[in-house]
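REVIEWER CHECKLIST
Item 1: Sequence provided? yes
Item 2: Single chain? yes
Item 3: Sequence as submitted:
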Amino acid sequence: MPSLKDLKNRISSVRSTRKITSAMKMVAASKLRYAQDQAHKSDPYAQHLAALLRQTEAQQALTDLPRSRMLRSAPPREDGARVLLLVVTSDRGLCGAFNGMMVREARRRIAALESSGAHVQLLCLGRKGRDQLRRVHGAKMLALFDDKIPRRRVELSFAEGVAAALRALFEAGEVDEVHAVFGHFKSAIAQVVTWERLLPISVPSTPASLPNQENGDMTDSAAPEILSEPNLAIVLDRLAARFLAARLYGILVDSAVSEQSARTMAMDNATRNAGEMIDRLTLVYNRSRQAAITRELVEIISGAEAL
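Item 4: Structure as written out by the authors:
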């Protein structure tokens, strides 16, 4: 049975921990709102860029110009396809099962790809995923650049740097496909592990409409023919590069939203658990204190009667 002093110190320690988790919850909630605002602001650009890419690709298909390398699947290899798996996690912990879910999905994808005869390489964005996957799959990892995601905010320049590295590997023929595993924000209490193929870029075969220039909305009317200078092949290649950077930026922002949402929930649960622990320890402390007082009274009464 712990002494009253030990119980008092334990209660004080848990109270200090509750203050920390409560503060971390408020900080994570603030970062969550900022990341959500960042995601909402980037969505219209990505949607309009995708519509323009689809329309340009549809018109370029009617010409004799070569198709962009980023839109074409690589020819099959006799020794199996070369797949690069991009795993997006966080640099910091204390976000519940967020990082564990990404790592488990990455391991499952690696096993599935290797069972089909593919050669898998890894590119980790985030220290937590890198440290866990390196234990078993260290030989598969690429070190192209700093693998830390900016902590203050996700910068477009960072996404453009990652996109340029992926594009260089793809166009050089070192990889045939690029897949991404990341966390998708579904709700404040749910984050979904998502898998997506980044390269080659998938473009729907049916032409899509362009944004309405008057109100910025997507219209169902036939889009006008695009006049380009230089030719459509060069324009399409540049649009594909911009689309890849925009999609990577969206993935990083979505992962940041999911991370902060998971951290908010984890710190909220930790704060509630600390409060329940304080209540239980306080009850044990009061009972022990009352038992000590009762024992002392019994000893005093017994001594008085003996006299």
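Item 5: Key structural point noted by reviewer: The first strand starts at residue 82 and ends at 88.
Item 6: Recommendation: ____
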